[in-house]
Amino acid sequence: MLGIVTAGIAPGLALLSYFYLKDQYDSEPLSIVFRSFIFGSLLVFPIMFIQYVLDAENVVQGVLFKPFLTMGLLEEFFKWFILYFTVLQHTSFDEPYDGIVYGASVSLGFATIENIFYLFANGLEYALGRALLPVSSHALFGVIMGYYLGKSKFAKESKKKWLLLSLLIPFLLHGSYNYILIMLEDWLLPMIPFMIFLWYLGLKKVKKARLLSAHHMQDSHLIKKPFVS
């Protein structure tokens, strides 16, 4: 039991630590990051219930509905909802890169509990595959969501566009991931380039967010000292 819990938690904590330590300016309070992680983990229970009801009642049908709507949209919307209402307006969210940290935190909270449940049900032998695919993909969906939320908060214009993209792009990526895994019989071959692309996109957003934070911190410093020549 201890081995399963450890294997279930370790990938999420490792990835969260990686993205947290990439914050080169004002690191986020660990209490707020941990709170976001817990909120994300608690999302598993209502989402599992809703997905069970939708499946049992056969509410949605069709090739695209399950991977995109009952899984992709439902999960990403709840994560987006938590980020929007508990983090976005918080005083600790004071630079664009903070969106990366909080987005990864909520997503990895969700992925960690989901991972533990799966390993309890199916066995420890799936731990490595789960770490490489579902856990890391959830982390990257959260990174991308957080990047656009950071853009929305600190951009001088097009705030609604960035806010919309913060939900739309993770939803489409998550739905595509699910479609490959669920609907394709030989899913491993297309999954490899998809995950490479997802990591490339996620790390690109990390780099861009760090640059945005650098500019933001520089501008804030100059505003505080208006007579600097």
Explain this structure to me?
Mean pLDDT is 91; it is low at 222-229. With 229 residues, the chain is mostly helical. 39% of the residues are buried. Helix 2 (30-42) packs across helix 5 (98-122) and helix 6 packs parallel to helix 8. The chain has helices at 2-21, 30-42, 44-56, 65-86, 98-122, 127-154, 159-183, 188-224. The longest helix is centred in the last third of the chain and has 37 residues, at 188-224. The chain has one domain (2-217). Involved in the degradation of specific anti-sigma factors. It comes from Mesobacillus foraminis. Its main location: membrane. It is found in: Cell membrane.
Computed CA radius of gyration, to the nearest angstrom: 18 Å
Share in β-strands: under 5%
Termini gap: 62 Å
Q: Helical percent range? A: over 70%
Derived structural class: mainly alpha
Shape: globular
Helix count? 8
Mean pLDDT: 91
Low-confidence stretches: 222-229
Topology, please?
Elements: H1 2-21, H2 30-42, H3 44-56, H4 65-86, H5 98-122, H6 127-154, H7 159-183, H8 188-224
Helix pairs in contact: 1-5, 1-6, 2-5, 3-4, 4-5, 4-6, 4-7, 5-6, 6-7, 6-8, 7-8
Concise summary:
Keywords: Cell membrane, Hydrolase, Membrane, Protease, Transmembrane, Transmembrane helix. This protein is an all-alpha fold and 229 residues long.
